């Protein structure tokens, strides 16, 4: 199984700041990595798929990059509604796995 | 707009079988382009993929749960289901159903909390 390691576990930032979240895979997943946002009490919401493609309705301040084993989610300027937990996810040979999550909290 | 809705008992006794159903509305489960999934999240923890099925009944399972899990689809009712047997307290979680077009889950149900307790 592909293990996804997210860092940092917690990111403390202020509104308007830039957030950079990392996801590292234990083996190459090509570009087949997705990012989700989860707010308290809600289901996860798909932000990015195939490493860099924004899902429908996702603001342009969210961007993804990377390939192979190293991936990044960037939020260019944090809005109040962006403070949440973010998960990465991969699908490799039908053994889907998620990372442990990064919590973006208000500093 | 596609909607997914989980249903099933909120409380299951240890050693018994957890059974959940996901009703799909606003689209057909028969679409060959999609896979239908169960994912869970233990309280305060991360996400764990459980199982996947397509309209023709092809299934994939998380290896760590495979011996206890069965996923099925009922195209006549536009729904799919999960059965997890021999449950323990470790199976207490919010269970989500979700659609997978290819590599990412684009539509999710709201989730249903299942507590394992006597």
Quantity of strands of chain B, as a count: 11
Helix tally of chain B equals: 0
Q: How does the overall form of chain A come out from the CA principal axes?
A: globular
Average predicted local confidence, pLDDT of chain A = 97
**How many helical stretches of chain A?**
0
Global structural class of chain A: mainly beta
How does this model look, in words?
The complex is a heterodimer of chains A (107) and B (118). With 107 residues, chain A is mainly beta. In chain A, 0% of the residues lie in helices and 53% in strands. Chain A is built from no helices and eleven strands. In chain A, strands 2, 4, 5, 6, 9, 10 and 11 form a seven-stranded mixed β-sheet that branches. Chain A has a four-stranded antiparallel β-sheet with strand order 1-3-8-7, with no helix packed on it. Chain B has strands at residues 3-7, 11-12, 18-25, 35-41, 47-53, 59-61, 69-74, 79-84, 93-100, 107-108, 112-116. With 118 residues, chain B is mainly β. Chain B is 0% helix and 50% strand. In chain B, strands 2, 4, 5, 6, 9, 10 and 11 form a seven-stranded mixed β-sheet that branches. Chain B has a four-stranded antiparallel β-sheet with strand order 1-3-8-7, with no helix packed on it. Chain B is globular. Classes of the chains: A mainly beta (107), B mainly beta (118).
């Amino acid at each position: 199984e592909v293990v996804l390691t997210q860092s940092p576990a917690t990111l403390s930032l202020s509104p308007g700041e830039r957030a950079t979240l990392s996801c590292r895979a234990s083996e190459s997943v090509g570009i087949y990595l997705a990012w989700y946002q989860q707010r308290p009490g809600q289901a996860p919401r798909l932000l990015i798929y195939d490493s860099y493609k924004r899902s429908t309705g996702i603001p342009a301040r969210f961007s993804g990059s990377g390939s192979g084993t190293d991936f990044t989610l960037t939020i260019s300027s944090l809005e109040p509604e962006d403070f949440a937990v973010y998960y990465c996810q991969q699908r490799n040979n039908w053994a889907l796995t998620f990372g442990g999550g990064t919590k973006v909290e208000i500093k | 707009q596609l909607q997914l809705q989980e249903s099933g008992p909120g409380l299951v006794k240890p050693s018994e079988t957890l059974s959940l159903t996901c009703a799909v509305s606003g689209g057909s489960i028969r679409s060959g382009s999609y896979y239908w999934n169960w994912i869970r999240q233990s309280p305060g923890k991360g996400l764990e993929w459980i199982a996947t099925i397509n309209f023709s009944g092809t299934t994939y399972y998380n290896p760590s749960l495979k011996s206890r899990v069965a996923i099925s689809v009922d195209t006549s009712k536009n729904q799919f289901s999960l059965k997890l047997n021999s449950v323990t307290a470790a199976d207490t979680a919010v269970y989500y159903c979700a659609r997978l077009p290819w590599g990412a889950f684009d539509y999710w149900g709201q989730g249903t909390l299942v507590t394992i307790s006597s």
